[in-house]
Amino acid sequence: MEYRTQMEAARRGIITREMKAVAEKEHIEAEKLMGLLAEGRAIIPCNRLHTAISPNGLGSMLRTKINVNLGTSRDMTDLEMEFQKVRSAVEMGAEAIMDLSSFGDTRKIRRCLTEKCPAMIGTVPIYDAVVYYNKPLAQITAAEWIDIARMHAMDGVDFMTVHCGINRETAEKFKKNKRLTNIVSRGGSIIFAWMEMTGNENPFSERFDELLDICREYDVTLSLGDACRPGCIADATDASQIGELITLGELTKRAWARDVQVMIEGPGHMPLNQIAANMEIEKTLCHGAPFYVLGPIVTDVAPGYDHITSAIGGALAAANGAAFLCYVTPAEHLRLPDVDDVKEGIIAARIAAHAADIAKGVPGAADWDRDMSLARKKLDWEKMFTLAIDPEKARRYRAESKPEREDTCSMCGNFCAVRNMNRILDGEIVSIFDE
Questions:
Q1: How far is CA 312 from the centre of its chain?
Q2: Which of 57, 238, 311, 363 is the most buried (most CB within 10 A)?
């Protein structure tokens, strides 16, 4: 075999089938993409066993992609409902699905996704270990933690969130620097608790080279998890978050030395005025590796509307260099999302991603908006619906409030500025009230 990973291929000057596919989607030259992959500034998460995948690239210079978190829990075990969410997510343009299942036959779910789903598939092995071994947390061994990561790679997942940065040193720093909301990362809290109960080092940190062997064998991208991401705006950009980020930067270099692709996970909750600076800090400390952010959620007071608070933060983060946005639904902090919540979360995240792509000048990003503007100028309602980010909702809103005249809407009617400007510039008489 000429190469094991996309990064190794790029460094050897080999343009892979996946690179060609991604370059075509991104409207850039394959040689340019290959250079970005070789440097680690762009990645193509694509497990060699995930044959159903339609490859996508992640990098600040590429289109901003979105991830959708799904999966069963002890309180919500409807597997068909989760697969319905997956189908809807793919239809609505999500490029990645993270299976966060924490109850039931998790391996069956995972394998079904990698056999049938064209989106990138991500997982968090730490969650699955608790389900798979079905024993007290403290009794899981270091070898068993690594074995779960190997199982996920063998099942075809394209990227794995692994909380390597919270080692005993960063855990001590966390304990010395008190937080308002402690550790809110599920995976981070599990590993922290395991270290506290056993007195052992984080196995994903201590046995990082074994983890790299696994990722290299299957070409799994390491998503270096942010165990210490802030869970409220008061904890943003604190010593624990930045300390962990420094460690993740060191691990990134070790992964690149083995040609393993890497992305870095980031906040979390964060006030607007800190987001741009955090993107720059990540670029510096993690050497330009693609940044994957949850939100950021810019205020803590909007349960039920956190798809909006995260879209605000996500647009600003991506405009300043984040490559990958994890969607947040209206159900965040409240419950497992249903199908409607998933849709709302995806639409909000796609709006944020697209707004950021316009701001950073991604090739072709503003063409969509220009086409919509031309359709509005012509009052071409069917074209507007086709171009809408949510065509169904746009059609439904117009149908629910039909105007008297088909070339207007029920808000402006004869006062429609677009209609009247079109007519007056064509030399027609505009009379408004007498029509």
A1: 15
A2: 57
Give dist(CA 154, CA 399) in Å, integer. Answer: 49
Contact 212, 254 (CB under 8 A): yes
HEC profile of 1-64:
CCCCCHHHHHHCCCCCHHHHHHHHHHCCCHHHHHHHHHHCCCECCCCCCCCCCCCCCECCCCCC
Residue 333 CB-density burial (10 A; 0-12 exposed, 13-18 middle, 19+ buried) = middle
Taken in order 30, 35, 41, 43, the sign of the CA dihedral is positive
Q: What would the DSSP string read from start to end of 87-134?
A: HHHHHTT--EEEE---SS-HHHHHHHHHHH--SEEEE-HHHHHHHHH-
Cβ 88 vs Cβ 80: under 8 Å:
no
What does the alpha-carbon distance between residue 358 and residue 318 come to, in Å, rounded to a whole number? 10
- The number of residues in the chain equals 435
Please say whether the beta carbons of 321 and 280 come within 8 A. Answer: yes
| Residue labelled with tokens 């027609």 | 428
Provide, for the chain, the percentages of residues in helix, strand and coil under a 3-state DSSP scheme, each rounded to the nearest 5. 50, 10, 40
Residues of the chain with pLDDT below 70 are 1, 75-77, 433-435
Q: What is the pLDDT of residues 393-433, one digit of tens each?
A: 999 998 998 887 777 787 888 888 888 888 889 888 877 76
Residue keyed to tokens 């597997």 = 79
Q: Are 433 and 414 in contact (CB under 8 A)?
A: yes
Q: What is the DSSP-derived secondary structure letter of residue 68?
A: E
Q: Reduce the DSSP state of residue 286 to 3 states and report it.
A: coil
Per DSSP, the three-state class of 425 is helix
What's the confidence (pLDDT) of residue 144?
97
pTM of the predicted model as reported, rounded to 2 decimal places: 0.94
157 Cβ contact partners less than 8 Å away, ≥ 6 residues apart = 47, 50, 99, 110, 114, 121, 122, 123, 220
Structure tokens of 12? 């050897």
Distance CA 324, CA 307 (A): 16
Rounded to an integer, what distance in angstroms lies between the CA atom of residue 334 and that of residue 325? 20
At 32, give phi and psi (nearest 5°): -65, -45
Hey, what are 173's tokens?
A: 């720093």
Which residues are 259's β-sheet partners?
none
Q: Where does 235-279 show beta strands of DSSP type E?
A: 262-266
